[in-house]
Amino acid sequence: MNVFAALAVLALLIVVHEAGHFLAATLQGIRVSGFSIGFGPALIKRQRRGVTYAIRALPLGGFVAFPDDDEDSTIPADDPDLLRNRPIPQRALVIAAGVLANLLLALVVMFGQAALVGLPAAPDPGVLVVAVQPGGAADRAGLTPGDRVLSLEGDRLSAGQEGVRSMVETIKSSPDQTLKLQRERDQRLEVISMTPLNQQGQGRIGAQLQMNLSGEARTAANPGELISYTLGEFQNLLKQTVAGYGGLITNFRATASQVSGPVKIVEMGAQLSEQGGSGLVLFMALISINLAVLNALPLPLLDGGQMLLLMIEAIRGRPVPERLQLAVAQSGFLLIVGLTLVLIVRDTSQLSVVQQLMGGR
Questions:
Q1: DSSP label at residue 122
Q2: Among 109, 121, 131, 150, residue whose Cα is nearest residue 278
Q3: I need a labelling partner for 62 at 20 to 30 A (CA). Which of 94, 126, 152, 351 fits?
Q4: In this structure, are strands 202-204 and 197-199 parallel, antiparallel, or unpaired?
Q5: Burial 94-122 (b: 16+ CB within 10 A, else e)
Q6: What does residue 44 show for φ and ψ, rounded to 5 degrees?
Q7: Which residues partner with 198 through β-bridges?
Q8: Would you state the torsion angle of the CA atoms of residues 271, 272, 275, 276, taken in this order, to the nearest 10 degrees?
Q9: Residue 313 falls in the annotated catalytic set
Q10: Whole-model pTM above 0.90?
Q11: Rounded-to-integer distance, Cα 27 and Cα 34, Å
């Protein structure tokens, strides 16, 4: 059931992203011919007011189609309502709307949780394990989501981000070294050993860590505190996400192994959903922000790549040649599909159930 909840969240994020493009176009009077979730053959298709809505076989994203891209379209090429005939600022808004929609969704769900559930009480000392990568050092040590690490190498971990920072720094500086940690599970204390893996000279354990929140909540003192808290948490998630993608660019060899594919993302969502509604909200906000930042990258087929072509057009004073645009799009499609398939195979082979089956042979 947790897996279905994670898949539902991912589907919602795709719909919201494409709805951003769709609404930005239609509200400006720009012609739209299609709204699809997924790629490939259509499983369900409906047409309304000249727009074809479809759910397709490959659930790896979605797209909004425009008559500009349809060679068989009967709409005159000089129609002022075609996307390509609109001013650059209007076209830029259509391109950016998907990213903005995902950022807005993350902000809304975080605000909604803070308003309905309340703000978390002051964190307790220690660090909470949120998700564990199968086969990683944390998994081998027996850590599971929900465990609370209270001390590392005999030193008590502080409350809040200071405790998380201290644990992360100790792990990074201890590759291939056995660490003793005290964990709490179901109100039982236990000392276990964990040996961080050595990746490019830094220790890695394959776990997502966060502040040790007690689960208790309090009502915000006033609307200002509610808004300030939500914006602060949103800003922290956004900064961490941007820093993560920045690490891929500046230190690809050390961070490439941390890139997650669709299978691993669903697994993380299932783990977080085990913590209840709050975990699912965190997953939705985190993945929505990741989807926004990923699409903002200036890569082929992504919104950032389209924005880059638009910027080049603005500088040149004329569009980029269609032949070049087609070549970039085709190469980008092959790259993204190929990378997705590699990540799916890698992540599937790392699932605990698969490892158990392989080990049983």
A1: P
A2: 109
A3: 351
A4: antiparallel
A5: bbbbbbbbbbebbbebbbebbeeeebbee
A6: -130, 130
A7: 203
A8: -120
A9: no
A10: no
A11: 15
C-alpha separations of 208 from 129, 169, 204 in Å: 6, 14, 11
CB within 8 Å of 324: residues ≥ 6 apart: none
Output the CA–CA distances (angstroms, integers) from residue 196 to 27, 141, 171, 173, 193, in the order listed. 52, 10, 6, 9, 10
Residues in the chain: 361
Angle at 305 between CA 299 and CA 308, to 5 degrees: 130
CATH fit for domain 122-214, picks 3.40.50.150, 2.115.10.20, 2.30.42.10, 1.50.40.10? 2.30.42.10
Q: Which tens digits make up the pLDDT trace of 223-269? A: 999 999 899 989 988 887 887 777 666 665 555 555 555 555 655 66
With beta carbons less than 8 A apart as the criterion, state whether 172 and 137 touch. Answer: no
Residues facing 207 on adjacent strands: 132
Question: Nearest 5°: phi and psi at 131?
Answer: -145, 150
Number of Cβ atoms within 10 Å of the Cβ of 77: 10
Question: Tokens 């940690």 belong to which residue?
Answer: 181
**Single-letter amino acid, residue 236:** N
Distance CA 206, CA 219 (A): 34
Domain positions in the chain are 1-30+86-120+218-361, 122-214
Q: Are 149 and 182 in contact (CB under 8 A)?
A: yes
Q: Note whether 73 and 33 are within 8 A (CB).
A: yes
Cα→Cα distances 175→59, 138, 178, 204, 335, Å: 38, 13, 9, 7, 33
Q: 3-class secondary structure for 4-41?
A: HHHHHHHHHHHHHHHHHHHHHHHCCCCCCCEEEEEEEE
8-state DSSP, 105 = H
Q: Which strand (E) or helix (H) includes residue 204?
A: strand 202-204
pLDDT of residue 170: 92
User: Residue 83: which residues within 8 A CB-CB, separation 6 or more?
Assistant: 25, 30, 31, 66, 68, 91, 94
First to last CA, the chain: 29
**Run of H or E residues at 57:** strand 51-65
Answer left, alpha or beta for residue 276, where phi above 0 means left and psi between -120 and 50 means alpha: left
Does 151 have pLDDT greater than 90?
yes
